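Tip: read the tokens left to right.
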């Protein structure tokens, strides 16, 4: 596995894997729900105050946010749902493309996003 990015983990959690999916707003959430839901999805959002993920929290594999802190709305809600979450995530080489299988690892001091090597 190669590291793609890292940020602040919201709480300790074992690594989980899923498909990378950027969700920009309610329309994207509704589209995902129409396509079968959030099972197996690592949701990527930009705004740590976003509330539009609410209908999917119980289905998602993990959440990655490019802003915020563990005290942000997204951090608080992810803890309630025990959903692995990385906030303030940065990707020096660029973010993975839609549908890329990634691992979100919140078991160490930071939250780390990895993809299979190759």
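Filled-in amino acids:
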């Amino acid at each position: 596995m190669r590291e793609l990015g890292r940020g602040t983990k919201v709480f300790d959690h074992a690594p989980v894997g899923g498909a990378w999916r950027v969700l920009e707003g309610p329309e994207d959430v509704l589209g995902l729900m129409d396509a079968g839901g959030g099972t197996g999805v690592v949701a990527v959002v930009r705004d740590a105050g976003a509330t539009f993920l609410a209908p999917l929290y119980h289905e998602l594999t993990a959440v990655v946010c490019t802003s915020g802190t563990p005290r942000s709305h997204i951090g608080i809600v992810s803890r309630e749902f025990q959903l692995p979450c990385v906030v303030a995530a940065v990707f020096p080489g660029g973010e993975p493309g839609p549908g890329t299988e990634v691992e979100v690892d919140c078991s160490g001091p930071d939250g780390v996003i990895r993809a299979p090597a190759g």
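The CA atoms of residues 70 and 76 lie 7 Å apart. Strands lie at 2-9, 13-22, 41-45, 62-65, 85-90, 101-106, 111-115.
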